[in-house]
Design goal:
Radius of gyration of chain A: 20 Å
Strand order of the largest sheet of chain B: 1-2
Order of helices and strands of chain B: HHHHHHHEEHHHHHHHH
Strand content of chain B: under 5%
Number of strands of chain B: 2
Oligomer: heterodimer
Order of helices and strands of chain A: HHHHHHHEEHHHHHHH
Largest interface: A-B, 52 and 48 residues
């Protein structure tokens, strides 16, 4: 285990047990401490009601983070996820609002997510556009299509079953959290145990090496963006079920929050490193921090300030580690 | 044209600028066929004036991008500074000078902090400036959840004043662009900006003051945001906590359209200026064609894709 980490970090030499634990499980420990301290400062934080509330909010962000993880490990970045989410949510209300519409809604949303990912991936690989600009352009265009489709004011209802999946719980465990768990296991295994997952790490670590090893780097990168697009579409549907009412901006801010969560979870923007579990813990930390700010009775604006500081500190923490 | 005429060297050096200027003229001709009202001086002056604000923010953004970075804090910075400008002036003409000076100083300081953060923490500029953006937005909302204070009488001159029939603000922006273009071309620090963006490691090996260059460009970006904040207060008469929110991403489009590569090291500010004119003109023409704003967004996305496909980026990602 130690050997493996040493190779990954460029061989920083033998590290003592404590430093090893800190550098590998620092983020886990931080989450536990955060929850513990929040619970001590404000007992209401640990009430069943509030915990269930936080768990409900983790799922949409977590699902996006899984996709973002693939893209970031591949040295990219996906700014279009929030736009895909909003588009999926708008489509969820675009029909008559009954359960029998669901196959249609899911099919169209996933197709849009996959299509957006495909365009992103092709721009990045075939045209050598930087991921930032490629996904920025698809984000803007999708926004335009969405506005044109809704004529600025979406209306209609989310099918009842979406409401159940998005906002209800089964003996205290939200259905959307179960969905997140299933997706996390599937994509976690795909990334950590499959041949494709290995190709993702190698391509992200060094695209030239990947090509020399006979990996079709372009195809791996395009697949990464497609995964991100599809997962964003799923997250959009889940979020539409959570909020119930849909406007043109459902999911606003998720593009940055998902990147922040990934970076906090140890997924380096320079590519080639990070895990799904890390990303999800990053997402959980963000949700806990937001919630704790409110529970402590601090002004809601502090959420944004703390988020900003956390982004920079988390990124700084990982930089120190890897150099 | 067997020999290298000055013209052909110019074209080769400034491909982005030339493409944009050609497109500008094509669009002007196209627009005149579409509508008589498009051709009027007042419409053209209007486009000219509207694009000045965006161009100003994009000026600082261009320098950051030339070093291979990006400034994602511009939107929040503009919001906070505009809020402070109108909040502190609060209609008192005596406060115009001290507040204006203070806001410009504050903008430079925030930008410098961005630059110092990037250099000291060794984190990607995207992350540092995103973090700064969130912090500034939070502070803006703590200061006021809605519009605060008001601009003193006479302050409107900055945005609406005219000299010889031309808008003062637009002329000022052009002068600033020319100044920065000359600086990039002839000043040593200007050349360093390109060197740092072209090859970060190489620049360090050659002993260039990389840290100083980076702190400098983000300071300039902060300076531009401060000017923009003051301009917006002059234009709208009041500052608002979300007034700058769209400029973060919008400021990147003119830079890219003007031929500056996101990877850094290549491009220039004049391309950005004409890029900003081009985008305003496209929206203006689309308005005259009765195309709804929804489709204008699609057009903007297509422009970005077209631009980045024309100026092929180096293989250097993010």
């Amino acid at each position: 285990m130690t050997d493996a980490t040493d190779i990954k970090t460029g061989g920083e030499g033998r590290s003592s047990g404590f430093r090893h634990i800190l550098s590998n499980y620092g983020i886990h420990i931080f989450l536990v401490l955060l929850v513990a301290v929040s619970g001590i400062v404000s007992p209401a934080f640990l009430s069943a009601n509030n915990i269930s509330n936080m768990l409900l909010q983790v799922a949409p962000l977590g699902i996006v983070v899984i996709g973002q993880a693939f893209v970031i490990i591949l040295r990219g970045l996906d700014l279009s996820v929030a736009s895909v989410m909003a588009t999926a949510a708008v489509i969820a209300t675009g029909f008559s609002g009954v359960n029998s519409d669901m196959p249609m809604i899911i099919a169209i949303s996933l197709a849009i997510g996959a299509g957006t990912g495909l365009v992103n991936g092709l721009l990045v690989t075939k045209r050598d556009v930087s991921p930032f600009l490629a996904t920025l352009a698809t984000m803007i265009m999708l926004q335009g299509f969405r506005f044109a489709y809704t004529q600025g004011a979406p209306s209609g209802n989310v099918p009842p079953l979406f409401r159940v999946v998005g906002a209800e719980t089964f003996y205290g465990i939200p259905y959307n959290l179960m969905l997140l768990a299933v997706l996390a296991v599937i994509f976690g295994i795909l990334l950590a145990r499959s041949r494709f997952g290995r190709e993702v790490y190698i391509t992200g670590g060094n695209p030239t090496t990947a090509r020399l090893l006979g990996i079709n780097a372009d195809r791996v990168i395009v697949s990464g963006y497609v995964i991100s697009g599809v997962l964003a579409a799923i997250a959009g549907l889940v979020l539409s079920g959570y909020v119930g009412i849909v406007d043109n901006w459902v999911g606003r801010g998720f593009e940055l929050d998902s990147i922040v969560a990934a970076v906090m979870g140890g997924i380096a923007l320079s590519g080639g490193r990070g895990t799904i579990v890390g990303g999800l813990i990053g997402a959980a930390i963000l949700i806990v921090v937001f919630n704790a700010v409110l529970m402590f009775g601090m002004p809601v604006q502090l959420q944004i300030i703390i988020k900003g500081l956390v982004i920079v500190l988390a990124a700084a923490f990982y930089v120190r580690r890897s150099v | 044209m067997a020999k290298q005429s000055p013209l052909s060297t110019f074209v080769k050096r400034n491909r982005g600028l030339v493409v944009v200027i050609v497109l500008l003229f094509a669009l002007l001709i196209f627009g005149s066929f579409i509508s008589d009202r498009f051709r009027t001086t007042s419409n053209i002056l209007n486009v000219f004036e509207q694009s000045s604000g965006l161009a100003l923010v994009s000026l600082g953004q261009t320098l950051a991008i030339l070093t291979g970075g990006i400034d994602m804090s511009v939107g929040s910075m503009i919001s906070l500074l505009s809020l402070l400008t109108s909040g502190l002036m609060n209609g008192d003409p005596a406060m115009i000078l001290p507040v204006t000076a203070g806001i410009i100083l504050l903008g430079c300081m925030i930008g410098a902090i961005n630059g110092i953060g990037i250099v000291m923490l060794r984190i990607h500029p995207l992350i540092v400036t995103l973090g700064m953006g969130a912090v500034l937005q939070g502070i803006a909302l703590l200061y006021s959840l809605g519009p605060a204070g008001k601009a003193p009488p006479g302050f409107k001159f900055l945005a609406y004043g005219k000299v010889l029939g031309l808008p003062v603000s637009a002329l000022f922006v052009i002068a600033l662009f020319i100044l920065v273009a000359l600086f990039l071309r002839y000043a040593r620090l200007g050349r360093y900006i390109y060197a740092v963006g072209d090859d970060q490691a190489g620049a360090r090996l050659m002993g260039l003051p990389r840290s100083g260059v980076i702190i400098f460009v983000y300071t300039v970006s902060g300076f531009c945001c401060a000017l923009m904040a003051i301009y917006l207060v002059s234009r709208f008469g009041v500052g608002q906590p979300y007034t700058g929110v769209n400029y973060t991403l919008a400021s990147i489009t003119p830079v890219v359209v003007g031929g500056t590569l996101l990877a850094g090291g290549r491009g220039g500010v004049m391309g950005t200026l004409f890029g900003a004119y081009l985008i305003s003109l496209i929206n203006n023409v689309l308005n005259f064609m009765d195309v709804s704003t929804h489709y204008q967004l699609i057009a903007q996305g297509l422009i970005v894709i077209a631009a980045v496909s024309i100026y092929v980026e180096k293989r250097k990602r993010i």
